[in-house]
Specification:
mainly alpha, 98 residues
Length: 98
């Protein structure tokens, strides 16, 4: 039996949440090959203990410069804006869950 057979269809609300979910800094850095998966896991474990922002932890470890972190944060913001503007143009809104 294929794993796909067990998946239930995604609701419109779940689709909306996936489309509009903000990409996290760690995901961006991983996709852009700025950190490894092992480094991201280490950062996340440390973040759970210290509650410090991911960028701050990266700077403390000297894995990246402040400029590189700011570039990734700018990328994150730009990506969010593109999604928001695209959805506005489509006038797409999720169905009211109530």
């Amino acid at each position: 039996m294929d794993l796909e057979d067990n998946k239930k269809p995604i609701s419109d609300r779940e689709k909306w949440d996936l489309l509009t979910r903000q990409e996290r800094l760690g995901e961006i850095l991983l996709k852009r090959n700025k950190i490894t998966l092992q480094q991201l896991e280490e950062l996340m474990n440390e973040q759970n203990k210290t509650k410090k922002p991911l960028g701050e932890l990266i700077l403390e470890k000297r894995w990246m410069s402040q400029g590189e972190i700011l570039e990734a944060l700018d990328w994150q913001h730009q990506t969010d804006q593109v999604i928001i503007e695209s959805l506005k143009e489509l006038k797409f809104k999720p169905e009211d869950p109530c």
